[in-house]
Design brief:
alpha/beta; 8-stranded mixed β-sheet; 22% helix; Metallo-beta-lactamase, Chain A; 7-stranded mixed β-sheet; 15 strands
Amino acid sequence: MKITQIRNATILIETIIEGKQQGILVDPMFAPKEAIPSLKYVTRSKRRNPLVELPSDMDELKSRVTCCLITHCQKGHFDHLDRAASKWLRENNIPVYCSAQDSAFLRNKGLAVHSLDPSLESTFLKGSIELVPCLHGEGFIGKMMAHGFGYHLQLPNEPSLYVTGDTILTQAVKEFVNRTQPDTIVLPAGGANFDLGGDIIMGLPEAIEMGEIAEGKLVANHLESLDHCPVSRQSIRSEIRVRGWEHRFFVPEDGESIFFNQLELKCVEQ
């Protein structure tokens, strides 16, 4: 399995199933740098989003996409599906998998939607996919957010993978990780907030706590791409080094790929 960090929450998961290359695009945000307004509403430290461009080999990455997973997309969550990505998915007739709660919304955008029942484990690419609820913030901020689902993928001849989606570290997430112990977890670690209320995704402390709970490999993303995410890659890497987790907890740069299998792991920068 190959996971490429594209930007923010957008990743590409690549595998070979029955001799055929499969590329699973997750939560695509394709807008160019500074195309979208700031997500800071009170302070003066506002910058237009995204803060960085897409990787230079984005056309090549797109050419390897065979389907798409959306964790959440309503209530203005452009950083998980923006207009540019919707247009590209529609024009290329890419199958889009999402929870039942998002299916009508995405069909109205003209996308080729495959709805997933959150209460069931479904067949996916000759393997299985299970939905895990997210809590995208608490209190009055939480009421404003779209609470989507993470995805637990078990694909043929690959390590299991849990893409948490945008969530804080809830008891439900902890219990799921303790029960299933996925081989690999992709989690947000940017500590996103809107100046008012608490964080709406995991920040540095929760990312480290996840590292203590999980026995497998971890990949942190949702970093340094949006102006309301203050956590830096360097701050996470420093905590990883202190704990001696360099062999199992990764913080890829945009455009960097990580290869996973059940025997070994290596990182390759692209």
